Request: fold
Amino acid sequence: MWTRNSAFLLAIAFTTATPSARGLPVDDRVPGGIAVIPIGDMTRPEVYLEQQRVLVVGSPGRWHAVAGIGLDVTPGEISLQVGKPGAARRIPLKVLPRDYPTQHIQIQDQRKVEPLPGDLQRIELETARMAAVKAHWTELEDPALDLRQPVAGEISGNFGLRRIYNGQPRQPHGGMDIVAPKGTTVTAAAAGRVALVGDFFFNGITVIIDHGQQLVTMYCHLDRVQVKPGEALVAGTPIGAVGQTGRATGPHLHWGAYLNGAAVNPALLLGATSR
Ligand SMILES: [Zn+2]
Reply:
């Protein structure tokens, strides 16, 4: 992947692209939320949550760890580890419960609700491929945390919804659904590098962008894609067009955001406050 040098040069490019609009996400310590934790160390701390490295931004004495809290985390006390594993100090934080609403969806193609045995094998491989990309750590000093919505439109499905497809409970909603006409341009939410382009059973035609330090965004159900893996993007670069590929009841963009491997509510990254 990136060398240290190219990551450094990109960091400069990203900084000049957005000189003043950089900020921190909303601190929302619930399953599917983000914990923003100030750390006063003089040197850049290495922070971990459950063995996963956590994104850190800031400057000496004024760091912030920005940790994704998985939707599957049980509310209660969890802790960040600051320092190398084995010699770390702990920062406890309290995860509050969040009661996400339920959404019922009718899908015409029953196979997208009850996949055939051959589909299951494909789904397993695709899930592993996407998980590997979301788990990849790319060094970058100062990732942009002020994301922009990749397409304008009405939100038809918020993050975290408990989903019932054709009467059967399935995985909770790991992103935000934005309705827009088929063919509407979809743009990169922030500067980054295209980590994966694929056509998946549930997600349809998909682009995943690596923004550095394991902040990753995902764009699904696309009609077409106009970027290639490895390509460097600035915020707002067109990456493709809204479609209805994969498991979708109409043209929309499923937009996902991930921190330290956990799906988090993308809306928290849109409400960035200046730091
Ligand atoms: Zn969705």
Notes: The chain has three helices and 21 strands. Confidence is low (pLDDT under 50) at residues 1-21.
